[in-house]
Write a structure and sequence with these properties.
206 residues; alpha+beta; four-stranded antiparallel beta sheet
Length: 206
């Protein structure tokens, strides 16, 4: 007859195992969060580049005129962009933003998670008298002219001031980074202190 030997962990051994698990979790969880943040940032950049393509499509369709915040179609800029890249409004949700779309009074984004630089593009129909619109030919330095950006301004379609930008990637705004796409099509991630206060950086390049 075989003898069955039972093994039992002592309290000390259990505490050692638990300690090892806690240490491993402490090492792995930050790495997993960084990986998730990186994936979200890249996905956001890709969306901004597609938004840029839609903006270029509008310029081609309207004889060189840049799409303003509210075109003469009476719709906001993102609807004009969405038409040209085959998307709907849900496309304009940033993967890193936890607050959804809805009524501003409920603390939600009443437009989208991205804003257009109205210093560059103009506000458009029914917002100025006369409404400000510009041609693409007026952009003399497209590599420094901000076009679209991560928005933290829940009650507007525009983000033409540092205070309206969401630095949401990697940490809660303004501790993280914001994604921007420029008029020439290149995208960049910037920290809060990388941008000047106010709208100074949004007035460059044209």
């Amino acid at each position: 007859m075989k003898t069955i030997t039972l093994y039992f962990f002592t309290i000390v051994e259990l505490l050692v195992v638990i300690s090892i698990i806690v240490i491993l979790a402490g090492i792995l969880l930050p790495a997993l969060k960084r990986a998730k943040d990186s994936v979200q940032r890249i996905a956001c950049v890709n969306k901004l580049k597609q938004i840029h393509i839609g903006g270029e499509g509008y310029i081609q369709d309207y004889d060189g005129w840049i799409c303003p915040g509210t075109p003469y179609s009476g719709r906001y800029w993102y609807w004009e962009v969405a038409d040209r890249i085959g998307k709907n409004k849900n496309f304009f949700m940033c993967p890193a933003e936890k607050v959804g779309f809805g009524a501003y009074a409920d603390g939600l984004f009443s437009y989208t998670h991205y804003g257009i630089n109205c210093e560059l593009a103009g506000t458009g129909y029914n917002y100025d008298d006369p409404p400000v619109v510009r041609k693409a030919s007026s952009v003399t330095q497209p590599s420094i002219a901000i076009w679209f950006v991560d928005s933290g301004y829940k009650s507007s379609f525009a983000s033409d001031d540092r205070a309206f930008v969401a630095f949401r990637h990697g940490a809660l705004s303004p501790a993280g980074q914001a994604n921007l796409v420029y008029f020439d099509g290149h995208a960049k991630s910037l920290k809060y202190n990388d941008m000047k206060s106010g709208s100074a950086d949004f007035k460059k390049g044209f």
